[in-house]
């Protein structure tokens, strides 16, 4: 019997002993969802559903583990010594334990973004409702590439984001479960789980960013987003200063609203550190950015802020102690960092303001972001009236006294992560030469470790900053406000040249400020690629530091290079969570340009990106677990990353063995053959020790098997030129990437053909300057590579 039920009340009379089972109710929205694209093979993938793809990657890019520590004390059967092939009491070996720790680090990072996303979505739904539309404008039709690719829906309203987060949270918990003692015994299974976490992280970041972009009217993919003042010296210290620190815009936005609603925006300075600063300037371009995490101690110790408001992530765990020493009240606003402060969310603001201004309370916890604005502004104004003007950091006399107390014992140098020669700077300063302090300041991450070991209790950080104050305040510049997603039209314009290789690559500087040397190295690295017409797309702390330095004409990189997603342009997508727009751009190339199906089709899209899209991440100063998770998410998507030397402490890299021919195979859909290819990209995660090495690695990692001969020629030209320029020699592997004489850089063709003949034994027809024998494979313009059987079978029919 067919029974058609329509909307309304229906009555089934006269029916006895009939049980009616109602399956899942499909609503109109779900019906429509079916229409936009057929569902791919892996909607909401479970933790093992993409294991086959991970295994394929990990066969080629075998994890290499750094010997950071070789014991484990995660459970009470330990501590267990795991060196020299020993196993823990639970049976785990060193490799698997390292992979477990990597998974844990990624879980911490992804959970931070996910909790942030949940907080934002929850807040925005309360304010604007479930049905508030996700509309990124006509130029951005593929609004959420990560969500479409992984979860398999096209989110249309804020409420849709909740179910995406439900899925992410569930899988994060499932993977956390796997890190309990006595679970996996193969390190590759943990690595696969770390990759799953990284992928989920990009989904969560996308949720967070598109929610705030649509609800708070941030720039919508605007290449001409406003230029923002950035740097220690941009603060108007004559005004009361509110310093906001962290990653969650909500309290800072409320402060900004309060200032505007009360006509105080020109009376009070709101400035930020880290991603809260970036997002505040997306909301209000008049807000200012002091800098990255490495500016936190600088900013607080200067004594300039009148009140400090913290939210979550990458905030020093001594913020309250440091502020209290200087009488700066702290307003903590996040459940993630309550700082031991009393919860005064529901108290009368007059009482709270009074307590903070009088010093009766060093700080308060206000959990409702909507209540922070009034309190922060009123406290800043009152404190400023009270405190008057003091010299930043210390007086000249105090500086001299502190310097004179130094004995040159070098304890500070050994404690410093960069072994900065504070002793020498102190000694030179005693003779009136402060220039060494300026050099120290350039590389100092203001971690304060030196102070902890100084037997004379010298306020070393304050001394460094005071002694180099002139240059510290001169480091100011402009950063283009985070523009959010890349437009579909931009992807259409650059898709073909990226895949052909004629745009030599996309470089994505996306990391923290734990740099190995001077902070301006990141500018030097990136400008090299901008001049060479690579696309540069940045986010987070790197995006800030790229704007911090001016050239001799007084221009920062954002003023010199346009903000489009195009060759020779510098795009800032926004804060950490906007990293999802960078992975999203790679996904969109596969979908919009190559028309590969996107919906729930992760492995195919990642395989496409790995083989065709010459995109590489750069995390030059990585330190956080979020950076670990973001990079691992990029790796699963087929995007390699170059990381600075401190990243060795993440414990593992993914480096291919270029000499193992059997690792470098693909299926060619055109010829229907399985064949060997040149080893590109030859790593998924690689540590560079110096900026010179990083530049050369970045250029090489843009090479892809599907490059056309024109593209390969351009990429090889950059690779060889950069190696000669920065390392003083030809790279030792350039010949591996040559398929035909047309791949060779034009200016060096004869020289390189000669080397191929003489040093590598290739056969050359000199009358035609043609390669007759030698390459790993011949060039084929229709070459269509994949490393996935299912993709091969799908397209090679
Ligand atoms: S988890 Fe295993 S290796 Fe670690 S302490 Fe416990 S028993 Fe030892
Ligand atoms: S504060 Fe600066 S000088 Fe001191 S240990 Fe940290 S990086 Fe080194
Ligand atoms: S530890 Fe203190 S006393 Fe020793 S060299 Fe450093 S600043 Fe001077």
From TrEMBL:
Domain of life: Archaea
Cofactor mode of binding and number, as noted: Binds 2 [Ni-4Fe-4S] clusters per heterotetramer.
Protein residues bound to [4Fe-4S] cluster 3: 406, 409, 412, 454
Binding residues annotated for [4Fe-4S] cluster 2, in chain numbering: 72, 75, 80, 90
A Pfam family: Prismane
Cofactor(s) essential for the protein: [Ni-4Fe-4S] cluster; [4Fe-4S] cluster
Binding residue positions for [Ni-4Fe-4S] cluster: 247, 275, 314, 512, 541, 576
Binding site for CO: 113
GO biological process terms, semicolon-separated: acetyl-CoA metabolic process; response to hydrogen peroxide
EC number: 1.2.7.4
Residues covered by the 4Fe-4S ferredoxin-type domain: 397-425, 435-464
InterPro entries registered for this protein in UniProt: 4Fe4S_Fe-S-bd (IPR017896), 4Fe4S_Fe_S_CS (IPR017900), CdhA (IPR004460), HCP/CODH (IPR004137), Prismane-like_a/b-sand (IPR016099), Prismane-like_sf (IPR011254)
EC supergroup of this enzyme: oxidoreductase
Catalytic activity: CO + 2 oxidized [2Fe-2S]-[ferredoxin] + H2O = 2 reduced [2Fe-2S]-[ferredoxin] + CO2 + 2 H(+)
Keywords assigned by UniProt, alphabetized: 4Fe-4S, Iron, Iron-sulfur, Metal-binding, Nickel, Oxidoreductase, Repeat
Molecular function as annotated in GO: 4 iron, 4 sulfur cluster binding; anaerobic carbon-monoxide dehydrogenase activity; hydroxylamine reductase activity; iron ion binding; nickel cation binding; peroxidase activity
Binding sites annotated in the UniProt record for [4Fe-4S] cluster 4: 416, 444, 447, 450
Subunit-structure text: Heterotetramer of two alpha and two epsilon subunits. The ACDS complex is made up of alpha, epsilon, beta, gamma and delta subunits with a probable stoichiometry of (alpha(2)epsilon(2))(4)-beta(8)-(gamma(1)delta(1))(8).
Domain description: Cluster B is an all-cysteinyl-liganded 4Fe-4S cluster; cluster C is a mixed Ni-Fe-S cluster which is the active site of CO oxidation. Cluster D is also an all-cysteinyl-liganded 4Fe-4S cluster that bridges the two subunits of the CODH dimer. Contains two additional 4Fe-4S clusters, dubbed E and F, that probably transport electrons from ferredoxin to the B cluster.
Family stated for the protein in its record: Belongs to the Ni-containing carbon monoxide dehydrogenase family.
Function: Part of the ACDS complex that catalyzes the reversible cleavage of acetyl-CoA, allowing autotrophic growth from CO(2). The alpha-epsilon subcomponent functions as a carbon monoxide dehydrogenase.
Name used for this protein in its record: Acetyl-CoA decarbonylase/synthase complex subunit alpha
């Amino acid at each position: 019997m067919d029974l058609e039920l329509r909307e309304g009340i229906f009555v089934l009379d006269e029916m006895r002993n009939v049980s009616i089972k109602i399956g899942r109710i499909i609503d109109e929205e779900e019906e429509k969802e079916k229409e936009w694209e057929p569902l791919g093979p892996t909607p909401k993938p479970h933790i093992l559903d993409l294991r086959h793809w991970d295994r394929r990657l990990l066969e080629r890019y075998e994890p290499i583990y750094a010997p950071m520590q070789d014991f484990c004390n995660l459970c009470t059967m330990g501590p267990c010594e795991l060196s020299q092939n020993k196993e823990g009491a639970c049976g785990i070996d060193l490799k698997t334990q390292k992979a477990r720790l990597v998974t844990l680090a990624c879980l911490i990072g992804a959970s931070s973004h996910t909790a942030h996303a949940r907080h934002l979505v929850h807040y925005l739904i309360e304010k604007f409702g479930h049905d508030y539309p996700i509309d990124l404008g006509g130029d951005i039709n593929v609004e959420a590439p990560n969500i479409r690719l992984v979860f398999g829906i096209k989110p249309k309203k804020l409420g849709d984001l909740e179910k995406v987060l439900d899925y992410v949270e569930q899988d994060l918990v499932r993977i956390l479960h796997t890190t309990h003692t006595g679970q996996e015994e193969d390190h590759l299974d943990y690595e696969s789980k770390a990759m799953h976490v990284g992928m989920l992280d990009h989904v969560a970041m996308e949720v967070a960013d598109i929610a705030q972009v649509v609800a708070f009217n941030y720039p919508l993919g605007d290449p001409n987003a406003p230029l923002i003042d950035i740097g220690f010296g941009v603060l108007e210290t004559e005004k009361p200063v509110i310093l906001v620190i962290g990653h969650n815009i909500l309290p800072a936005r409320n402060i900004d609203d309060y200032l505007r609603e009360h006509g105080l925006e020109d009376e009070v300075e709101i400035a930020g550190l880290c991603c809260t600063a970036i997002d505040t300037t997306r909301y209000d371009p008049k807000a200012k950015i002091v800098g990255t995490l490495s500016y936190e101690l600088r900013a607080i110790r200067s004594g300039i802020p009148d009140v400090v408001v913290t939210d979550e992530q990458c905030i020093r765990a001594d913020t309250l102690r440091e502020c209290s020493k200087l009488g700066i009240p702290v307003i903590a606003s996040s459940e993630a960092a309550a700082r031991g402060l009393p919860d005064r969310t529901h108290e009368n603001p007059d009482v709270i303001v009074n307590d903070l201004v009088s010093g009766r309370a060093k700080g308060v916890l206000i959990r409702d972001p909507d209540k922070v604005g009034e309190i922060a502004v009123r406290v800043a104004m009152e404190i400023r009236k009270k405190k008057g003007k003091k010299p930043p950091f210390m007086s000249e006399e105090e500086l001299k006294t502190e310097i004179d107390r130094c004995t040159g014992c070098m304890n500070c140098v050994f404690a410093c992560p960069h072994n900065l020669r504070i002793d020498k700077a102190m000694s030179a300063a005693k003779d009136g030469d402060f220039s060494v302090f300026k050099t120290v300041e350039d590389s100092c991450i203001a971690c304060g470790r030196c102070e902890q070991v100084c037997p004379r209790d010298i306020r070393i950080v304050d001394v460094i900053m005071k002694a180099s104050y002139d240059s510290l305040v001169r480091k100011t510049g402009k950063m283009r406000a985070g523009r959010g997603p890349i437009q579909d039209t931009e992807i259409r314009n650059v898709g073909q040249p990226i895949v052909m290789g004629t745009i030599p690559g996309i470089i994505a500087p996306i990391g923290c400020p734990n740099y190995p040397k001077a902070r301006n190295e990141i500018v030097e690295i990136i400008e090299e690629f901008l001049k060479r017409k690579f696309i540069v797309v940045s986010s987070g702390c790197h995006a800030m530091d790229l704007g911090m330095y001016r050239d001799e004409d007084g221009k920062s990189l954002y003023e010199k290079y346009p903000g489009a997603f195009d060759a020779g342009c510098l795009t800032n997508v926004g804060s950490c969570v906007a990293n999802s727009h960078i992975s999203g751009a790679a996904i969109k190339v596969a979908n919009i340009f190559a028309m590969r199906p996107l919906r729930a089709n992760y492995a195919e899209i990642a395989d496409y990106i790995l083989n065709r899209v010459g995109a590489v991440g750069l995390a030059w100063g990585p330190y956080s677990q979020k950076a670990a998770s973001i990079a691992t998410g990029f790796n699963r998507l087929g995007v390699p990353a170059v990381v600075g030397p401190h990243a060795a402490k993440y414990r593992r890299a993914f480096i291919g063995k270029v000499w193992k021919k059997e690792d470098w195979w693909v299926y060619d859909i055109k010829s229907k053959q399985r064949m060997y290819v040149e080893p590109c990209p030859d790593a998924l995660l690689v540590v560079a020790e110096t900026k010179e090495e990083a530049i050369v690695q970045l250029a090489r990692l843009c090479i892809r098997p599907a490059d056309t001969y024109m593209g390969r020629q351009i990429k090889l030209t950059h690779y060889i030129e950069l190696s000669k320029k920065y390392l003083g020699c030809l790279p030792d592997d350039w010949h591996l990437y040559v398929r035909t004489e047309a791949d060779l850089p034009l200016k060096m063709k004869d020289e390189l053909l000669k080397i191929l003949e003489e040093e590598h034994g290739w056969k050359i027809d000199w009358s035609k300057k043609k390669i007759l024998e030698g390459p790993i494979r011949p060039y084929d313009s229709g070459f269509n590579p994949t490393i996935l059987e299912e993709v091969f079978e799908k397209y090679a029919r």
